[in-house]
Design brief:
Radius of gyration: 26 Å
Largest sheet: 2 strands, antiparallel
CATH architecture of the largest domain: Up-down Bundle
CATH topology of the largest domain: Four Helix Bundle (Hemerythrin (Met), subunit A)
Number of strands: 2
Structural class: mainly alpha
Length: 274
């Protein structure tokens, strides 16, 4: 008797209904596929990237007025995506909106600005490196090592530029995100540290120094050595401050950051910063 029962009792739907549903599901998938967003970037996103590149490479000089109509003509777009791009760049702190005076590129960091930026980084990143090393479940050591290898194979031409900044940004953000604290990640991102530091790169900066310092940090984190990771990150940041201080045309040894950091953290500044 059970073998003669309608299939709706055994499987929930009859064979004919199943066939019809399969057809409907196939049509639904085709419809959804057609409705998927175009993967190509929008005009506003493209314009944002192009203007951002011009600012980061100082093709548009720091502290310069931006002519919206001129940018629109140069980029071959209307003024609308240019305005949208400038609003995003204002969020990146690469552009300033001056009341009644329009949009301007932000000035380069001066020595005080560089000090303040690294003071924040020295408060956050050494601790984050140690914390990331402790948690074996989210330990990013292997990923950090592979990122260094990727840079050396694909981008490591020894020349300062966007490739090194992309690597540097990815490396430091991976450590921050490994801590698993969204408030920390947001605070770090809001500094836009790498965007501003990129504008201070000089032609004689050697990426091999940065990469070797990154390798020491990655190795300490991979070994779950929190103390070594903290020390390596702190040393790296002081070394970077020294390099970027030269990019300002001055010497990092004249900076007040070292005394500020010592008073806040109770630390002696590393030999590389003396």
């Amino acid at each position: 008797m059970w073998s003669d029962a309608p299939r709706i009792f055994r499987h929930g739907i009859t064979a004919s209904e199943a066939s019809g549903r399969t057809s409907l599901d196939s049509e639904r998938r085709r419809t959804l596929k057609r409705a998927e967003p175009n993967p190509r970037p929008s005009a506003a996103a493209t314009v944002y990237e192009r203007i951002r590149h011009l600012i980061l490479t100082n093709t548009i000089p720091p502290d310069s007025k931006l002519n919206i109509d001129g940018l629109a003509r140069e980029l071959g777009v209307s003024q609308t995506p240019v305005r949208e791009a400038l609003q995003r760049l204002e969020g990146d702190r690469l552009v300033l909106a001056k009341q009644t005076r329009g949009y301007w590129t932000s000035p380069l960091l001066d020595e005080d600005g560089l000090d303040h930026l690294f003071e924040v980084r020295l408060l956050i990143e050494p601790w984050a490196a140690g914390a990331a090393a402790v948690d074996r479940a989210s330990n990013p050591g292997l990923w950090l090592t592979r990122e260094i290898e990727r840079f050396e194979l694909d981008d490591g031409d020894g020349l300062p530029g966007e490739a090194l900044v992309r690597h540097d940004t990815a490396f430091h953000m991976a450590i921050i995100e490994a801590v698993g604290n969204p408030f920390l990640a947001e605070a770090f991102e809001r500094t836009h540290a790498h965007l501003h530091l990129f504008r201070l790169y000089t032609d004689d900066m050697d990426s091999s120094v940065t990469i070797e310092e990154h390798r020491i940090i990655a190795d300490a984190i991979a070994r779950s050595d929190a103390r070594a990771a903290t020390t390596a990150m702190r040393t790296h940041l002081f070394s970077a401050l020294h390099r970027f201080g030269r990019g300002l045309g001055g010497s990092a040894s004249n900076s007040q950051l070292h005394s500020i950091t010592s008073s806040v953290l109770g630390l002696e500044r590393p030999e590389c910063a003396r």
